[in-house]
Amino acid sequence: MIFQVSSRLDYLVSFPSTLILNIHAQKTTGQIVSNEQLMIDPQMPWEEIQFDQSDARFVRLETGNVNSLTISYSATVDCAGEVVRADAIDMVPVADMDRRAIPYLFPSRYCQSDRLGRLAWDLFGQIANPYEKVLAITNWIHDNVEYVAGTTNSGTSAYDTVTQRTGVCRDFAHLGIALCRALNIPSRYFSGYAYQLQPPDFHACFESYIGGKWMVFDATRLAPLNGLVRIGTGRDAAEAAVASIFGRVQLKSMQVNCQLAPGQNFQPVGPQQLVNQGVSLENSHVSSAN
Fold first, then answer.
1. What CA–CA distances, in Å, run from 55 to 35, 79, 154?
2. Domain made up of 82-239+268-282: CATH architecture
3. Has this prediction a pTM greater than 0.70?
4. 160-214 confidence digits (pLDDT tens)
5. From CA 174, how far away is CA 141, in angstroms rounded?
6. Burial class of residue 196 in the structure, from the number of CB atoms within 10 Å of its CB (0-12 exposed, 13-18 middle, 19+ buried)
7. CATH of segment(s) 2-79+247-252
């Protein structure tokens, strides 16, 4: 499926600062990026950087002495997701897991799986099938945590969310990750552009490593799982923030958009379909063509 994504960030700058932005669509075997543009007004030097073992594409720039700054990004992204039958997903023991999935078993800053172990096992420990287990976690969060904008902040953790029972997509994702990790299921944070998300914004959900694949889940149910374009992946939001600011810069406005490219026939995978099938966003274009 081909999407056209764009974002615009308008900042007020109080004094010379450094920004590290994470708004570029990732370039992977499952995401082919074309017609890409990054515009910075006023013009200033910038560099794209990547860190070891990460496909995230960060932009680093220094504001200099400007008072205002506008950053605009656009791209066409061909995403090769895969729909997987739920009954074909088996549990992978920790001893047999891909070593790259192991770090996503451990507690992290916003996902304190070590503090939520008893709750996770009491609620979901009796479910044997791993896909059904993660789906039950996702449904429980949707039914027991209210989506309310402005009720949490950048310091809110999964433990806070399960206590307060309110949050936004970031908090729903952190809680899902923490509960999955408490049940020995590697899980990671996903940030991206989302088709049909209202109001349009950057979106967060999570992926769990089950059946040898990273399967995507979204407890908010605000966007179809096969309508996501990956920007960032990490242990939690600390590793996939849209903007990290070193200095004094204030966000004045933000616009985000994700639309289907012309000629696409989109069939959304929603909550009703997820009982029998899951979505993996890591399928490659090569394998899907065979």
1. 19, 15, 24
2. Roll (3.10)
3. yes
4. 999 999 999 999 999 999 999 999 999 999 999 999 999 999 999 999 999 899 9
5. 11
6. middle
7. 2.60.40.2250
